[in-house]
Amino acid sequence: MSKDNLIASLNLTREQTLHFFELDEPMLQRTYGRDKWSIRQILHHLCDSEQIFMERLKRIIAEPKQVIWAYDQDKWNDAFDYQVSPLGDKKQLYNLCRLFNMELVDKFFDTHHDKPFIHSEAGLRKLGEEFERIAIHNNDHIKQIETALMTTPVLLVGSIKINIQ
């Protein structure tokens, strides 16, 4: 992906994601499938991920021979009780981190695109791949949110399912 296309994709997914932070409480509780995260949980996760991407990018750019450690998103979700935790200032934090990540792409894409690093689970990768991963990751979650928004919410009362309109 070219730098211009990547920045355009990062900006588009940023704008789409920011819109979802404005959903009302019942919409934030919707999920995209049985035993899947709610929209609220996805938004918390996207904010966490954007911060983690920012820290990773800075380390890879500034320091040689980086090993970037994976994190367990489900443990973060449980530890911080994202199912019920208010989003608060997460919209602003997500936006600031994304804007900074876009600035890093703009400034370092051409000169550091092929800079190698080690991911603790995926192995050897290049900075250009990590830049692209930000947009791909966000876009995948946007699709999950869109699926959740199109799904008719169901309330379980005992063994009876009630569609909520």
Short account of what is shown:
The chain is mostly helical. It contains 6 helices and 5 strands.
What does this structure look like?
The protein is globular, with a radius of gyration of 18 Å. It has a 3-stranded mixed beta sheet with strand order 1-2-3. The protein has a two-stranded antiparallel sheet with strand order 4-5. The longest helix is centred in the first third of the chain and has 24 residues, at 39-62. With 165 residues, it is mainly α. Helix 1 packs antiparallel against helix 5, helix 1 (3-20) packs parallel to helix 6 and helix 3 (39-62) runs antiparallel to helix 6 (127-150). The chain has 6 helices and 5 strands. It has helices at 3-20, 25-28, 39-62, 73-79, 90-112, 127-150; strands at 67-68, 116-119, 123-126, 154-157, 160-163.
Defining key terms:
6 helices; 11% strand; single chain; two-stranded antiparallel ribbon; mainly alpha; 165 residues
Mean pLDDT: 92
Number of strands: 5
Overall 3D geometry? globular
H/I helix tally = 6
Order of helices and strands: HHHEHHEEHEE
Instruction: Give the terminus-to-terminus CA distance.
Output: 42 Å
Task: Tell me the layout of helices and strands.
Layout: H1 3-20, H2 25-28, H3 39-62, E1 67-68, H4 73-79, H5 90-112, E2 116-119, E3 123-126, H6 127-150, E4 154-157, E5 160-163
Parallel strand pairs: 1-2
Antiparallel strand pairs: 2-3, 4-5
Helix pairs in contact: 1-5, 1-6, 3-5, 3-6
